[in-house]
UniProtKB/TrEMBL annotation:
GO terms for biological process: daunorubicin transport; doxorubicin transport; response to antibiotic. NCBIfam families: drrA (TIGR01188). It holds the Pfam family ABC_tran. This is ATP-binding cassette domain-containing protein. It is a peripheral membrane protein. PROSITE patterns: ABC_TRANSPORTER_1, ABC_TRANSPORTER_2.
Length: 328
């Protein structure tokens, strides 16, 4: 099957910094591709290339069979885009915002009004249709922005960190909207820093760091890369971190994950509960006190930690993580 979203060998530099370094992406029709990575990994630059906002220095990209580099106007007709921040006019009502977007896409006035009413109902905004969008909650503004991206029923939808800044309830509501879109056949590229979001929504996850793909597959595939059950210990005293890591490592015979300044030690547990109990006995002889302990299945956060050496929440900032031409 031909991919609805595909990119090959994308390279983009800004001065001496490499934003994209040979990036490949693909997504089949009616699926969700999650582009996962920390700030500065190249996610937003990839989105800008695919949505015709930025031209790459090298590489190619297509949306629904349309070359975004040679036919950008035609590619945009097949595309809906929702950025990191809701791009709505706060002084217009929800209804007026959608009608305006419809008119900008070339719909006749009656068509734009009918489509606006349909989308307001679909996104549970009918009761707020006549209110200025500045009075909307964050979740409502995000739903309105998603509705605007769908005004012409595009086959491809690109959501750049769609739930950034939303509270947990609004994030879950947005996930529900996204699932409905995919059920209707839309192909979605989703960039996110939220590992749970990728786990919940994506058919395929591409993990990037420093503008390069470092892993890809389904959430299940990626979790399988780091094995089965894991020990997780939270220390009462962070000063015991190195001692605890050495002790757990000697018991499990596996690599132990711990970060300076944290109070958590994580390691694969090759013998499950037996590994945990042995580690606890050894830590007790070392007088290492614990606040919490557990034996759990791996998560995408474990995958990210294994692949990059840091957790998603403690990922380096853009200034620290963007490679230069001298240190690639």
């Amino acid at each position: 099957m031909t991919a609805t979203i595909q990119a090959h060998g994308l390279v983009k530099t800004y001065g001496r910094a490499w934003a994209l370094d040979g990036l490949d992406l693909s997504a089949e029709q009616g699926t969700v591709l999650a582009l996962l990575g920390p700030n500065g990994a190249g996610k937003t630059t990839a989105v800008r290339v695919l949505t015709t906002l930025v031209k790459p220095d090298e590489g190619s990209a297509e949306l629904a069979g349309i070359d975004v580099l040679t036919r950008p106007e035609q590619a945009r007709r097949n595309l809906g885009l929702s950025g990191q921040y809701a791009a709505v006019d706060e002084y217009l009502t929800g209804f007026e915002n959608l009608v305006m977007i419809g008119r900008l896409y070339g719909l006749r006035r009656a068509q734009a009004r009918d489509r606006a009413a349909e989308l307001l109902e679909q996104f549970s905004l009918t009761d707020a249709a006549g209110k200025p969008s500045k009075d909307y909650s964050g979740g409502m503004r995000r739903r309105l922005d998603l509705a605007a991206a769908l005004i012409v029923r595009p086959p491809v939808l690109v959501l750049d960190e769609p739930t950034t800044g939303l509270d947990p309830r609004s994030r879950i509501e947005t996930w529900g909207v996204i699932r409905d879109l995919i059920a209707s056949g839309t192909t979605l590229l989703l960039t996110t820093q939220y590992l749970e979001e990728a786990d919940q929504l994506a058919d395929k996850i591409t993990v990037i760091d420093h503008g390069r793909v470092i892993a890809e597959g389904s959430a299940t595939d990626l979790k399988a890369r780091i094995g089965g059950e894991r020990i997780e210990l939270t220390l009462a005293d962070p000063a015991d971190l190195r001692l605890a890591a050495r002790t757990v490592g000697s018991v499990t015979g596996t690599e132990v994950y711990s970060e300076a300044g944290s109070s958590t030690v994580t390691a694969p547990a090759p013998h499950g509960a037996e590994s945990l109990m042995t580690a606890l006995r050894e830590l007790d002889t070392q007088n290492v006190r614990l606040l919490d302990l557990g034996l759990r299945r791996p998560t995408l956060d474990d995958v990210f930690l294994s692949l990059t050496g840091h957790s998603a929440e403690q990922a380096p900032t853009n200034d620290d993580s963007t490679p230069t031409k001298d240190n690639r």
